[in-house]
Amino acid sequence: MICALIMAGGKGKRFWPLSTEKKPKQFLKLLGEKTMLRITFERLQKLIPNERIFVVTSKQYTKLVREEIPELSSRNIIVEPLSRNTAPCIILSALKIRKYYKDSTLVVLPSDHRIENNEEFINTLVVGEKFIAKNKDSIVTIGIRPNRPEIGYGYIKCDSHYVNVNSKKVFLVNKFIEKPDLCKAEKYLQSDEYLWNCGIFIWKIETILQLAKKYATDIWSKLVEIENYWDQGVSLVLEKNYREIENISIDYAIMENVRSIYTIPCEFQWDDLGNWTSIERYRKKDNEGNVTNENSIVYKSKKNIVITKKKALLNNVDNLIVVETEDYILVSSKEKEQEIKIAKNLCSNLE
């Protein structure tokens, strides 16, 4: 039996000003008529029934989750009282899901990534589930074959050892690599050993909880205490304990301590849509490389991104990002896009 956990508690630091802390990226329609969260949920429905799909989110986003996925039962929405990174988030959720599906395999994935070729994605999950069924103490992570020298992602280096499952190779992970510089990223692109780490995991619920007990002792002890209160108003105990636990990712808390980790190299297109320039890869461009709304007018301008409700006129400008919302207008050079969050922090009362 397979369950899924969608992580949807991100705070909206990317894609400002369209994405804000009140309505972050996962609740936006960045690539079409549906939000990123809705697209992720519908993709999982092709393999997993609604009752076995769970969403973990922050308290402030519970209403948005219900609006986006009205068919999801209240028991399937797991609420964090405050943000404490992915390790507490996943351990809390695994404890909750264990109550209903103790012996299940769990797929954990972000809510706001772009994936093309849903059939290949589902086939990959099936392969992961079959592998875990025979290797219950192992962890599977999904690896994406790079198609460019990307310095914004972490990488996975594959070991030479692998097993075949449904005609797919499942490799032992040699090591995880932090975001590289351009020189190393170009080297990784030329080798079959290196994959992008997309942050999708497959494991037995009992396995991840035992690993949490072993390697994330403080988090485990604080969260396992709440199991006795699930049916008695868990919120007060959970909030008290959550404030006391470490803010740490699952990678640092558990993954770097585990040796039996495998990866499935995948062919489907994937992108974490981490910044405005990533939109260029998927939205239609004009002959000069501009990504604009239909009501924009472009004159002697190249490679701009323009997302506005009002009519916009671009005159002899290149490589700009222009984004309009009800409250703000962002104008930034593409080259310095990474400094948007710094500039935003210099302003007061933006949200």
Task: Note down, in words, how this protein is organized.
There is one protein chain. It is built from ten helices and 16 strands. The chain folds into two domains: 273 residues, Alpha-Beta Complex (Spore Coat Polysaccharide Biosynthesis Protein SpsA, Chain A); 70 residues, no CATH class. The strands form four sheets. It has a five-stranded mixed beta barrel. Strands 13-15-16 form a three-stranded mixed beta sheet, with no helix packed on it. The chain has a two-stranded antiparallel sheet with strand order 5-11. The protein is α/β, with parallel strands linked by helices. Helix 1 links the parallel strand 1 and strand 2.
TL;DR of this structure?
By secondary structure, the protein is of the alpha/beta class.
